Amino acid sequence: MHPSIKESILEKKDEIVEQWLEEIEQFRYEDYLQNISDSVYRSTNREFVDKIFETVDLCSDDVYERISQYSERLIQLGWPLNYITRGLQSFRQITVETLSNTGDNYCYDIEFYQEIESWIDNLINALVSDYSGSWENTVFSQKMALKELSAPLIPVFDEICVMPLIGTIDSERAKLIMENLLEGVIENRAQVVLIDITGVPVVDTMVAHHIIQAAEAVRLVGAECILVGIRPEIAQTVVNLGIDLGKFSTKSTLKKGMATALKMTDREIVDLASK
Amino acid sequence: MQVQTRVDIHSEWGIVAARQAGRKLAKEIGFGSVDQARITTAISELARNIYLYANQGEISIEEVASAGKRGMKVVASDRGPGIKDVRSVMEDGFTTSGGLGAGLPGVKRLMDDFDIDSEEEEGTTIISIKWLR
Ligand SMILES: Nc1ncnc2c1ncn2[C@@H]1O[C@H](COP(=O)(O)OP(=O)(O)OP(=O)(O)O)[C@@H](O)[C@H]1O
Ligand SMILES: [Mg+2]
């Protein structure tokens, strides 16, 4: 930044800061920051404006470095990005206005505006990039977490496993269901697998197709599938779609399916008290 | 009151979003749980066809009224490759993607009114309505 511009900015610092703190108060109520206490709010804004001034003559790489610790804190506090970009925009406006009011000659220079623009743009870029990085991390770890609870195969008795499916089945999950099913059947030496779709909100042709394919694959490795948890409205839509589930066994509830599975493996549940 | 909701379909998330919007409106209009499931499933089929065959397009849903009847209209439109032979895609089991080929004939059965308009290399628009009874 041009030394004379920097000098004038620093000279007017107090005036700019005071105006900006006043201006930014207005955003507070629009931007869901009401839950933050007054003292944290004030000190964070204070720190924010100090950081802005610290970066006045840094090049963009140094800006990233200087700001990263601070942005991490903002992210943890849950400070909305929107508030920050608006804050920086109003800071830019106030700075330009304040300096224009001095009537100095350089204010008529396009260079003057460009310097201030690029200073604030660097800051916005650094903050936006930190924020989006943290969102990407969050999305990534949630995706991993979701994948883990995606399609568990649970051995419940010797030779009997249950796969409860909950939530939407997209193509990625459908692949996982197939993999876990086949691996698990072999690993647990299962004879019967109960696939429970109580928690699947929509059974359309794609979901039905994947279930049919999974059941056929399970048959190929020497076990049987029973589809359970078919809610009445799902039964009706599947019939409307013209999908034939008659080829493999279906039961309305997991409980009934379990009784069938035990029978298929030559066992039953007996009530000891009645004997 | 007649507000239209549009959902862009360009990923599998769009399919889920369209379904959720559809279920919400169907419930608001007063459809029972079986019809809610029918409408939601129909939307799922139409949205997935858009995603699979046209890459992108949109689903729009709205409440409609005619001759004292109330209902829900679902419009699926895209500017994809279009359908060459509309009659054959309406047959059960016809598929070009190794699917079940049950989607479009299924939607026709799930809904009450069904109208398909498709022009090769122009795109496809499917209008369907479920009436409340
Ligand atoms: N929006 C579209 N644009 C272009 N072609 C389409 C569109 N929708 C459907 N088609 C064509 O119509 C065929 C039949 O569609 P339909 O939904 O009935 O079955 P499918 O998608 O092949 O399988 P399923 O829906 O049972 O999983 C598709 O294979 C595809 O070739
Ligand atoms: Mg289809």
From TrEMBL, chain A:
<feature type="domain" description="STAS">
    <location>
        <begin position="150"/>
        <end position="261"/>
    </location>
</feature>
<protein>
    <submittedName>
        <fullName>RsbT co-antagonist protein RsbR</fullName>
    </submittedName>
</protein>
<dbReference type="InterPro" id="IPR012292">
    <property type="entry name" value="Globin/Proto"/>
</dbReference>
<keyword id="KW-0597">Phosphoprotein</keyword>
<dbReference type="Pfam" id="PF01740">
    <property type="entry name" value="STAS"/>
</dbReference>
<dbReference type="InterPro" id="IPR051932">
    <property type="entry name" value="Bact_StressResp_Reg"/>
</dbReference>
<dbReference type="InterPro" id="IPR014792">
    <property type="entry name" value="RsbRA_N"/>
</dbReference>
<dbReference type="InterPro" id="IPR036513">
    <property type="entry name" value="STAS_dom_sf"/>
</dbReference>
<dbReference type="Pfam" id="PF08678">
    <property type="entry name" value="Rsbr_N"/>
</dbReference>
<dbReference type="GO" id="GO:0019825">
    <property type="term" value="F:oxygen binding"/>
</dbReference>
<dbReference type="InterPro" id="IPR002645">
    <property type="entry name" value="STAS_dom"/>
</dbReference>
<dbReference type="GO" id="GO:0020037">
    <property type="term" value="F:heme binding"/>
</dbReference>
TrEMBL record, chain B:
<dbReference type="InterPro" id="IPR036890">
    <property type="entry name" value="HATPase_C_sf"/>
</dbReference>
<keyword id="KW-0418">Kinase</keyword>
<dbReference type="Pfam" id="PF13581">
    <property type="entry name" value="HATPase_c_2"/>
</dbReference>
<protein>
    <submittedName>
        <fullName>Serine/threonine-protein kinase RsbT</fullName>
        <ecNumber>2.7.11.1</ecNumber>
    </submittedName>
</protein>
<dbReference type="GO" id="GO:0004674">
    <property type="term" value="F:protein serine/threonine kinase activity"/>
</dbReference>
<feature type="domain" description="Histidine kinase/HSP90-like ATPase">
    <location>
        <begin position="34"/>
        <end position="133"/>
    </location>
</feature>
<keyword id="KW-0808">Transferase</keyword>
<dbReference type="InterPro" id="IPR003594">
    <property type="entry name" value="HATPase_dom"/>
</dbReference>
